[in-house]
Amino acid sequence: MGTRVMMLIMKQPHYGFLGVRLKTTSSQYVASRARDPTFEKLMDKYKNLVKVVAVQDLILANPSDPAVSVDFLSRLSQKLHLNRGAVAFLRKYPHIFHIYHDPTKGQTRCTLTDTAFRISEEEAEAINASLPLVVDRLVRLLSMSTSKMLPLRGIFKVFRELGLPDDFEQSVISKNSHLFQLCDAHEPNTHNLKLVGEISDKFVAAVENWRVEEYCKEGCSVDRAELQFSFKHGYPPGMRLKKNFRAKVKEWQKLPYVGPYDEVTEKKRLSKAGMKVGEKRAVAIVHEFLNLTVEKMVEVEKISHFRKLFGFDLNIRDLFLDHPGMFYLSTKGKRHTVFLREAYEKGCLIHPNPVYNARRKLLDLVVLGRHDMFTGDSKMKSIANTMQSQLVCSGCRSMLLYPRGASNVCCALCNIITPVPPPGTEMAQLICGGCRTLLMHTSGATSVRCSCCHTVNLAPAANQFAHINCGNCRTTLMYPYGAPSVKCAVCQFVTNVMGNARVPIPVHRPSTSASMPHSQSQTVVVENPMSVDESGKLVSNVVVGVTTGKK
After folding, report:
1. CB 427 within 8 A of CB 391
2. Would you place residue 209 in the very low, low, confident or very high pLDDT band (cuts 50, 70, 90)?
3. Mean pLDDT confidence for 113-131
4. What DSSP string describes 124-155?
5. Ramachandran region of residue 494, left (φ > 0), alpha (ψ -120 to 50) or beta?
6. Which of 123, 235, 270, 377 could form a disulfide with 358 if both were Cys (CB 3.0 to 4.6 A apart)?
7. How far apart are the C-alpha atoms of 388 and 119, rounded to whole Å?
8. Helix, coil or strand: residue 232
9. Which residue in 19, 41, 17 sits closest to 236, CA to CA?
């Protein structure tokens, strides 16, 4: 019976401000929320962006030498939540990070690509160009506080969300001493930021602008008498709204409240109706806070530091869940992030800003991952033209891509330095017959010894081919000697070439009647070996079928 009740609770959505909520734990309340696929897909991208930004900040910490050693990142991989290690994470985003070997320091280092550097500079320029807006955001944030003062460490937690520059203590606070003042807090080595300037005009909340726009519309969906205290609502697709729920939302919209920039005079114990008014004021404050952010989103943990300073002591996560028409809470990436629903459409901001546009470009590189490494924009193509040489690492046998003209290549996985063959030397590849490892050797060599199993492999000549029977239809297949597998052009079956292939024979054989006196008609299929494309993937070549008959 208890299990049935719990399953019923988990299936039914809860709306705390609309009635009495069932007694559930906080995790159950989060799990029972209505999902929005658009925000969930967006958060799937942002959870990786957070890790990329953390590594990028470490690289850019030293402007004179914007690079960091891979060993240092490996030691911080657990703290940075790099689950598969630093090297695997860096190789996952080749459009953002570049791994190279520094011979002067004798270590493998990581820096940003030219594209990532350009995006970082674009974001910094956009922030510096919007310093007047940054000052306005900071003044508004302090104005919402009951004491017109906030701890500096709390502002540090949300400085990126507010679009503040890295040196905002000097570029914003010190240069605007007529507005801001740093005061000593009660705790040692802590400071508070206080608003000391007089604001001539009263601030207008963002929701007031929406109400004016709705009031001026001819086909306004909300009753104009209710617009005075209303908020814009939009619900996740597929969320069923009952009549009782709609009626209580309409009643809540009419409820008067004290604005986020208005002072609260009464601090006595409130009644049940007064608690609803206080809750609506809390909703108005977090609504205005999200409007002050650059991307209209923030982590719940960061904004929760300000709730008592803003004059309300409610569970802020439950506050977001109680109002699904205004906010959306996502739990992707082991963190709770809240979005302002009305600011987004199809996963993008309706009214973007230059800082958001620059960060969105970095997000696009994160989503790109390893794809389009050589088929992107002209910049990526130029990088591809200068990195067309490759060799096999002498340590771990990984395929390494390096710029032309390099004398040595250091593997990012095993740190083994492999010498580069002299320029003009053509290289060839074959599969070891013992351990099936891809071996690279100089063209023209007669034999190649595998460094893994020490098997001596006969290097095929350019005109040598081998035969094998298809594993499905038993058709005789002819292929260049050394190919790892052969695809039949008749039945499309892929046959692995192990040790069952016939001895390679020259392609130009003497055609005499004595060689095959009574051979019957047979189908010979020519299959080229799979080759490695520019992105490092195995690609099957075109299959040519040839039918011959001899008597």
Report:
1. yes
2. confident
3. 93
4. HHHHHHTHHHHHHHHHHHHHHSTTSEEEHHHH
5. beta
6. 123
7. 26
8. coil
9. 41
Share of the chain residues as helix, strand and coil, in percent rounded to the nearest 5? 35, 20, 45
pLDDT for res 508: 41
Give bridge partners of residue 423 from the DSSP assignment. Answer: none
Task: Identify residue 311 by its one-letter amino acid code.
Answer: G
Q: What is the pLDDT of residue 403?
A: 72
Which residue has 């809860």 as its token pair? 14
Enter the pTM of the model. 0.65
Nearest to 42 by CA among 358, 378, 297: 297
Question: In this structure, how many other beta carbons lie within 10 angstroms of the beta carbon of residue 164?
Answer: 23
Record the tokens describing residue 389, joined without a space: 């040489």
Rounded to whole angstroms, what are the CA distances from 456 to 440, 447, 448? 13, 7, 6
Strands 447-449 and 456-458: antiparallel
| CA–CA gap between residue 409 and residue 503 (Å, rounded) | 37
- Taking only the tens place, the pLDDT of each residue in 389-401 is 677 777 766 667 7
- CA-based nearest residue to 549, from 522, 511, 512, 517: 522
Q: Cβ of 427: how many Cβ atoms within 10 Å?
A: 13
CA distance 234 to 244: 17
Q: What is the pLDDT of residues 253-294, one digit of tens each?
A: 888 888 888 887 655 556 777 788 888 999 999 999 999 999
Phi, psi of 381 (to 5 degrees): -65, -40
Structure tokens at 550: 């001899």
Rounded CA gap, 120 and 273, in Å?
Answer: 50
Looking at every residue in the chain, the average pLDDT score rounds to: 78
15 close to 322: Cβ distance less than 8 angstroms: yes
